[in-house]
Amino acid sequence: MDAKTISLLYFSPTKTTREIVQAIGKGSGLQILQDIDLTAPQVRESVIELKADIVIIGIPVYAFTIPSTVYPCLNQLEGKGKPVILVTVYGNMSAGHALTNLASLCTARHFMVTGGGIFIGRHSFSSPQAPLASDRPDKKDLQIAEKFGKDIVHKLVQPGPILPLTFADSKYSKKAMTNPTHLARIVAGPSKFDPTLCTGCLSCVRNCPAGAIDKKTMQTNAATCIRCYACVTTCPTKARTVSLRFRPVLHAVFYMKNKAHPMPQLYL
Prior knowledge:
Elements: E1 5-10, H1 16-28, E2 31-37, H2 41-44, E3 54-60, H3 71-74, E4 83-90, H4 98-108, E5 112-120, H5 139-156, H6 183-187, E6 192-193, H7 203-207, H8 230-234, E7 240-241, H9 247-257, E8 265-267
Parallel strand pairs: 1-2, 1-3, 3-4, 4-5
Antiparallel strand pairs: 5-8, 6-7
Helix pairs in contact: 1-5
């Protein structure tokens, strides 16, 4: 295959998936023809045509699988037989079956799955009081991502046919292609908002992937909010904080999980 260009496509409310996908793109050594962030609602509602020779698609893992917020957009893509590299990013709790489901979706949309990676990024529920993978992706993760990009392209430019890649199924049920929207709401509420710290910069409004924050009142629509806490991570004055139910139990779980430092899993 004669590959010269690459398209990057990702949903990344807290920017960790974006960071990893861009590192893979950089490592590929190809011209990045498109860098498409699907986080903003208006981007997901547009018609997306992938123009490069190779595509990278990256998503965070929500409740073991593909975020329901971005699924309709991904399900409208047309692969046209292009090689695709799939990336899923989880917050040190569980990688679930997101990569397998994403591969099934992309195959159905006529992509040829030629590589995949499971990476670790800061958990959306992480906080100073209960950190969970708060330093991920770290320097080593990004080095691995860049080398992964280089290795994938090396594989694709070899003479001979390109064979599609399949992933071993996980122990989790594949019945749910997207995350149950109610699941995060069981353990978390919309971010807590302190108006005395708010400067009115509207960073939270601009970065909310669900359009759940009213720019006049700064209040969050609990029914629309997906609990990604992009508003928390992007607020420059810490006017918004994570709001968890069952806090002692969750903090204990986070404490145990945060002791582990899993490495990315790569499939070539």
